[in-house]
Design goal:
about 190 residues; mainly alpha
């Protein structure tokens, strides 16, 4: 009889699975990637994968939740190191520009998931909405600290830059959105 799987091994296997699936889904699309490809990339048997996640939809939701924590955490770490409140808001767009320029950038993982599954998966739709609300709220805190009532506009500039850069493959929408945000903030 094989030795029981430890909690640590479960944690490591689950992370390896999430890493492999996230990479494949982001690069190629959720519906274009079969679970056999996830199995091959993760090195885990399908039976083990389905013990972690009963359905592909559950795996997608887990990926989006984990990506949200990492993505918004990285953004906050970048923005929060800027002392001036106006410049902190503009730093959002500097961070976006760096993200857009990364190799393999394919736009917003949540918009992509919504485009593929949002009309057919309540769980994915709920996770997309949760991320977008959390991102909105994060921006609103920084904009409020700058003393300007333009949180909605700054949020829409950020979202528009993300979608435009994802579709065009060009990082310049971050720079254009930054310039528009500076006008809204009254910053030269």
């Amino acid at each position: 009889m094989p030795a029981p799987i430890t909690e640590e091994q479960n944690r490591l296997d689950r992370e390896a699975l999430l890493d492999a699936a996230e990479k494949l889904f982001y690069e190629r699309g959720i519906q274009a990637v079969g679970m056999d490809e996830v199995r091959a990339a993760s090195g885990l048997p399908l039976k083990r994968i389905y013990r972690f996640f009963a359905a592909k939809e559950d795996l997608v939701v887990a990926i989006l939740k984990r990506r949200d924590q990492r993505w918004r955490g990285n953004l906050a770490a970048h923005v929060d190191q800027v002392p001036d409140p106006h410049e902190r808001v503009l730093a959002i767009f500097d961070w976006l520009a760096e993200w857009f320029a990364q190799p393999g950038f394919r736009g917003c993982a949540w918009i992509n998931a919504y485009g593929e599954l949002g009309s057919s998966s309540e769980a994915v739709l709920a996770e997309v909405r949760s991320h977008k609300q959390a991102f909105h709220d994060q921006i609103a805190v920084w904009v409020h600290a700058a003393g300007r009532p333009v949180a909605e506009q700054v949020f829409l500039l950020a979202e528009g830059a993300i979608v435009t850069a994802g579709i065009s493959g060009d990082p310049s929408p971050a720079r254009h959105a930054r310039a528009a945000a500076a006008l809204l903030l009254g910053t030269p």
